[in-house]
Design a protein that fits this description.
Elements (H helix, E strand, L loop, with lengths): L1 H14 L2 E5 L5 H19 L8 E3 L16 H8 L5 E5 L3 E3 L1 H8 L9 E3 L1 E2 L21 E2 L5 E4 L15 H9 L8 E2 L3 E5 L10 E3 L15 E6 L9 H6 L7 E6 L8 E3 L10 H11 L9 E6 L2 E3 L1 H8 L9 E3 L1 E4 L6 E4 L5 E4 H9 L11 H12 L4 E2 L13 H5 L5 E3 L6 H8 L14 H6 L1
Parallel strand pairs: 1-2, 1-3, 5-9, 10-11, 12-13, 12-15, 13-14, 17-21
Antiparallel strand pairs: 3-8, 4-11, 5-8, 6-7, 15-20, 16-22, 17-20, 18-19
Helix pairs in contact: 7-10
GO molecular function, one term: glycosyltransferase activity
Protein name: Fringe-like glycosyltransferase domain-containing protein
Subcellular location: Endomembrane system; Membrane
Length: 453
């Protein structure tokens, strides 16, 4: 009994040196998830100590919209907790924590030294999404799986402010590594991405939740208008792939091109094709969406002609969001976030907008500075100017499956991938995005798919 109380006192003392940071988002759905996670942590920690540790929601820490990318907020956290704490533990909204097991795992490391802890991921081959880092041997560089939780010791925070442009998992690791001057990621076996109730997760301090049926019935396909951006030179190359794969799941879909082709059919919006960005075309799509030319729907999906997407899975995901809010959803990137930049949804993985968001965008003075400007980045600048949040989902992917770590994709049911380069896109769709055990109705999605979403 004495040994038990000694251990409990040790846990209490160590717990007071930890700061939990939930990587939350400002959208109402994500705020509610983060609040539930904070309540669970408080319940666990209050059973161990009368003075619970700080449990922070990332989106509410400062006025900097780019705090989601982690690096800009590290100096602030160092200033606030550097003298009285030992660890920063970062959690995603779906990460479940067993606090006592987490404390036992952290106690293995000397908190007075620089530590970067997590579940390691690595690239099988060099990839554009990680800027071809370590191109000769990409597997040697490890970066954390954010879903498993990851931790920094406080001594590691005494660095100069970051200069961040395209944030992703590797850039946190690259910044901390600092060209070999800082520590590499240290693997912690207790940080896991096993399902919450899996028998293989008994040793885990962290697991992933299965929230089904968290958000109710799927959004009806009649409530989603799909806009596919294409051009004449891809009418016979990319459009047939869309028709063979996911077009049949769409109720309202139009192809927008620089050439009218009745056999598809395509619609010429009067914007010439451009080799670089497609800002002019995308803003013309937004204008058409709110006009009387198309049926009125709650949601707009804008995709490229080489985007592969599961519309039934998107219907499931959208059931979590309120279309009366200005929702802008997809894979979030950022530009210059450490210097007052902006976030944006990468266009290749698909950009989803609520009607409320489109109306707000078009009512502003924000426009394309050129027809060939990058549409996703211009939209990001517009949203930033309007104070509208960009909402991230890791289920959208702006590259091919080969460009992501296998372990990263292993605990996902993805919604989209992008690019036909050096792959069989129909085979990729059938492997990654087609739910073989369901009917064509989204109500027929199998249980495992619902739980992952």
């Amino acid at each position: 009994m004495c040994a038990y109380f000694f251990f409990l006192n040790l846990v209490c003392a160590y717990l007071r040196e930890i700061v939990f940071v939930i990587q939350s988002q400002s959208n109402s759905f994500h705020v509610s998830r983060a609040e539930r996670q904070r309540a669970d942590l408080l319940q666990q920690t209050q059973s161990l100590t009368q003075t619970p540790p700080p449990i922070l929601l990332l989106h509410s820490l400062t006025d900097n919209e780019g705090d989601w990318s982690i690096l800009p907020v590290l100096p602030y956290l160092s200033l606030l907790f550097g003298k009285n704490s030992s660890w920063l533990v970062f959690l995603e909204e779906e990460t479940n924590v067993k606090v006592t097991k987490l404390l036992q795992a952290l106690r293995k490391f000397d908190r007075r030294k620089e530590w970067f802890l997590g579940k390691p991921l690595h690239d099988e081959e060099s990839t554009i999404i990680h800027h071809y880092a370590f191109a000769e041997n990409p597997s040697i560089f490890k970066y954390p799986d954010f879903s498993a939780a990851w931790a920094l010791s406080i001594p590691l925070l005494d660095r100069s402010g970051p200069n961040l442009y395209l944030p992703c998992l590797t850039l946190v690791a690259l910044y901390i590594w600092e060209n070999g001057q800082g520590p590499r990621l240290t693997a912690v076996p207790e940080l896991c991405t096993e399902p919450e109730h899996s028998p293989t997760a008994q040793h885990c301090a962290t697991t992933l939740s299965s929230p089904a049926p968290l958000c109710g019935e799927p959004v009806k396909k009649e409530d989603i208008f799909v806009a596919v951006k294409t051009c004449k030179k891809f009418h016979t190359e990319r459009v047939p792939v869309v028709k063979k794969t996911w077009e049949r799941e769409a109720f309202l879909l139009e192809y927008y091109s620089d050439h009218t082709d009745p056999s598809i059919p395509t619609i010429d919006l009067g914007v010439p094709n451009t080799e670089r960005g497609h800002c002019g075309k995308t803003f013309a799509i937004l204008e058409r969406y709110v006009s009387d030319a198309v049926p009125k729907t709650r949601w707009l999906l804008v995709v490229d002609d080489d985007t592969l997407i599961s519309l039934p899975r998107l219907q499931m995901l959208l059931s979590c969001y309120d279309p009366s809010e200005p929702v802008c959803l997809g894979e979030r990137y950022g530009y210059g976030l450490g210097q007052g930049g902006y976030s944006y949804i990468t266009g290749g993985g698909g950009m989803v907008f609520s009607r409320a968001a489109v109306v707000r965008l078009l009512a502003s003075d924000c426009k394309c500075y050129r027809d060939d400007a990058p549409d996703d980045m211009v939209l990001g600048m517009c949203l930033n100017a309007l104070g509208l949040p960009v909402t991230h989902s890791s289920l959208f992917h702006q590259a091919r499956p080969e460009d992501y770590s296998r372990d990263f994709l292993a605990h996902q049911v993805p919604i989209s991938f992008h690019k036909h380069w050096n792959i069989d896109p129909v085979a990729v769709f059938n492997r990654w995005l087609k739910d073989k055990s369901r009917s064509t109705s989204p109500r027929g999605l199998n249980k495992s798919t619902k739980e992952e979403l």
